[in-house]
Fold these 2 entries.
Entry 1:
Amino acid sequence: MNADSRTRLNQTPEWTALAKHREELGEAQLRDLFAADPGRGSGYTLQVGNLHVDYSKHLVTDETLRLLRELAAARDVFGLRDAMFRGEKINTTEDRAVLHTALRAPRNEVIEVDGENVVPAVHAVLDKMAGFADRVRSGEWTGHTGKRIKNVINVGIGGSDLGPAMAYEALRSYTDRDLTVRFVSNVDGADLHEAVRDLDAAETLFIIASKTFTTIETITNATSARSWLLTELKAGQEAVAKHFVALSTNAGKVADFGIDTANMFEFWDWVGGRYSYDSAIGLSLMIAIGPDRFREMLDGFHIVDHHFRTAPAESNVPLLLGLLGIWYGNFHDAQSHAVLPYSHYLSKFTAYLQQLDMESNGKYVGRDGQEVDWQTGPVVWGTPGTNGQHAYYQLIHQGTKLIPADFIGFAEPVADLQPGLVAQHDLLMANFFAQTQALAFGKTPDEVRAEGVPEELVAHKTFKGNHPTTTILAKELTPSVLGQLIALYEHKVFVQGAIWNIDSFDQWGVELGKVLAKRVEPALTEGAEVGGLDESTKALVAKYRELRGR
Ligand code: F6P
């Protein structure tokens, strides 16, 4: 379907039908929906790979779901999905294919871009990464002075940082505990300072991760890391080869930086930054967990890719999650979406999803170049659940905003937890289940009174409930399960972008800030007169210089 000739989303009959249905449902209560359908708790569930997905605590009926699926059909979500998997250039503003799914394709699959099968190249890089990771892990790869590498520092930002940093935390129990793995992203010198201050340069490998190899934060940090290394080793440029490798699509810039392109691991322009951690960008993770575990993770991604591509709409989990987001964002005016993992290992999971979702769907211009007049991507936020319970859950329970939330938990604690700590897992998960129950069903004034609460406190202790949640439960957090979870969210974001008719794969909105930062810097350092500064920014720059004694 030609996007330009599409009817505006909010003028389609499917949209109008959903709006009418929303009015009819009014303030439908989850208590009533469950009372009307005793099978809802087990019936409103789906399975994908190892993920059990319960959507019973949502403000939906069978009719809501049917109407949402009709909207997806009318917007040809599956047509765009197939075009993506086929390698068509669905990232129209950058004229690029969108093929992160090829990164986890089995060796024998054929996926073509511009008539060329990309799968052999993907596996060639994976094999090269595996060879390198094994050499570092075994001690065969040594630093300039012959010492074994004990520290690995990934230098990158955005998609070249968040993915490997998140996955390293998530899979810590699978990592080689003798290796120190750190991630430097912030151009604030404190980040690199803290990362290297207690390390022996002779034992340290820097992985410079940048798709473009032009990102100023990364190149600045990489340059500082190189100076630190050469100063510490009292060595010349020849030491760089054993301590710096690059992950990039830009061989020319990698060579300009002084890294031997033999030590470069490539990927391709059809891998978006925020979809790249299962490409060469995952090298630090592969060194930490080993190539076999990395492959298990890729296979987990592939399980969900296959499901998204083949499952019918009624049982297609990414489609369902995408549609639920549309229901709340577009028909309940929800502004945000919380992702609340009940696993300490997923402490960076939501931060990772912020880029995936907000950089993909935070857009007000549609594929047709017209401004949309419907809500697009939500604010995605959250931290591990139990900590959140003692911070912001108050607002979710009793605030004035509707905040749909995903609860992610695991039946088993990680394998290498000390036996004494294993017992805590039931308490963790008791909180997990209790919270979604409390959010959904709340506590009525009568229930509060029955507890003997004085009348003047009844309103304060009443919970209205009706806060929608999805529960995602798996047996344990393995590399495969992590891959499954990430692919699930990738495709959910895809579904929403397809319905909103936006290009989820460009990111023009981050450009202006980058350009202005370059323009402002000489004003800070040299007091240069730079054009185009507004009065407020000029005054702030002057104050900054005064505070720095310049
Ligand atoms: O924030 C913009 C962005 O282009 C992201 O999409 C990307 O992940 C990040 O910058 C880093 O880019 P690069 O890998 O090219 O350094």
Entry 2:
Amino acid sequence: YEAKFGNYGTRTFSSVLNQALIDRRELEQEMASALKHGGFELHYQPQCDQNGRVAAFEALLRFTHPTLGVVPPSRLVPIAEESEMIISLGTWVLREACRQNRQWQVEGYPPVRVAVNISSMQFAREDFADRVAEVLDETGLAPQFLELELTESVVVKDFTESTRQLQRLKRLGVSIAIDDFGTGYSSLNYLHRLPIDRLKIDRSFIQLLNAPNSTLPILEAIISMAKNMELGVVGEGVETDEQMAMLCLKGCDLLQGFLYSRPVSADRAKFLLHAGPLYESLMREDALAVA
Ligand code: C2E
Ligand code: MG
Ligand code: MG
Ligand code: MG
């Protein structure tokens, strides 16, 4: 007990729980105020083609609490979902990502897509596609430069309704990616019936490529399935030369991960747009040779 709860000193377990609730409420209030006064930020992580060129940026929510410090989205999103703040926060994310992407285009940078994570609660709203249309209209971003990331579980929850929602979105001209692909519990037979554009292979499959029970067969299966269905495929969480080389060898179109870049501020993302390839293809051949 001492070792496990050492940080909490002599406080009882229930007072620790109590404190957690207070922290949570405080965080929720802080988030509500941040949403009003501009306290949220987006960071951008590149998705590169096999030659290391930036093809897209994934927008990732960032929040720094005045006393708690940086709060990760894995903590923010559930809190925002509980209070339904996720609807207005999600719209802010969408608008900010589109505005920023359009801004880069206006400044003359080569056009790329921006990929925005969409929560299940946003996707479930009947007027979601209308919100997306409004944001595109307001920001002037052409729809082919916006991608929406949805997880498998969100899409298969209500297949009929999801299909309708996806069709509305597709009619706008935006693209759809299935995030964390392979971690859901869904059957594969739903996939070919959904109007989607890309699969994002969950990073767990990439990080276990070199494990004793390699995930390589799964990776190969996902990539070849994506190819057969004419879907694009993104490898997530690429951290090493070997992982990158293997994904390229197997035909993965896009790669995203710390090997290329961590998520960075909008200012730094802009530099990545004219920095040339983030990874030299020469180095890729070296890595392939040793893989
Ligand atoms: P995700 O959509 O799967 O985003 C990728 C996450 O993997 C990001 O974490 C990113 O920083 C991390 N990552 C990228 N490359 C690597 C790598 O090479 N190694 C490792 N270990 N991690 C890597 P982040 O930013 O903490 O976001 C976590 C999750 O929070 C996201 O997972 C997404 O589900 C959610 N999220 C983030 N921003 C938003 C948002 O604006 N709206 C909603 N609804 N969810 C969001
Ligand atoms: Mg994502
Ligand atoms: Mg993901
Ligand atoms: Mg993930």
